[in-house]
Write the structure tokens for this entry.
Amino acid sequence: MSKKKRNSAAVVNSKLISRPIQRCFPLFVLPTFIAFCIGFIWPFVQGIYLSFCKFTIPQNAKFVAFDNYARVFRDSGFLYSFFYTAAFAIVSIVVINVVAFSVAYFLTQNIKGANMFRTVFFMPNLIGGIVLGYIWSMIFDGILRKYGTFLLAKTEYGFWGLLILMCWQQVGYMMIIYIAGIQSVSEDIMEAAKIDGANKVQTLFRITIPNVMSSFTICIFLTMTNSFKLFDQNLALTGGMPVAFQPDGTMVNTTEMLALNIFNTFYTGANSRGVAQAKSVIFFLLVAALSLLQLKFTREKEVQS
């Protein structure tokens, strides 16, 4: 009976505590919700509307229906930037996650100075993209100058330069997530694998990796979205250069990614701002769709594991 009384008393106390919280809930949430609507929802809705308009400022927007979207799909520079960004995203997803997981696995093997190495690998993530872009451009030009060339001489140099910069900045952040996933694997499972005679390679591929699929989901999502949204590093490192001519005679910036292409379109002229806004909407839909597909695919792997 005493136990039941204690349980009933706990229920009463929890209700007494929760009721004031429920009453004050709107009071605490409302300011944040209003700020969210002002800072995100309204600009987002207005941006969608402006993608169907010709404008220099939002106040003089003139509705032109789907004319901006038609101009987007006739823009060879945008289509080139899309395929260039997609190729960069695929390569960066593979390289960054393989390197980050390898470093994380190595640093969880009880080596000396593991905490120091974790700090060193994570530090580049704290530096701004613009600063990194200018620093690495000087590093690359200093190396390539010895061979009589420079970073903007070839498209391939810019591509691999961006990839190296991206890896150097983001590997440490992904490493922390993988370390948390590896350390969460149950010791009982690892001991059972050793008793069954599994070697390190078998334990890695059959025990560790399947049990850290949630970390892969997070890291692949972050890497993919960061790759598609890459802007400040692209602007500082290559600025979209060098320039090349397409077979149809149009000129494109060969290392210009989608975000930089949208930025350049917006500031090329007053009549192009609606086109840039239409590109932004397409860009949002593209990244959202790819992110949802990736989350669905990797979460299915988590269930199987």
Remarks:
- The CA atoms of residues 292 and 299 lie 10 Å apart.
- The first helix runs from residue 2 to 50.
- The chain is about 75% helix and 5% strand.
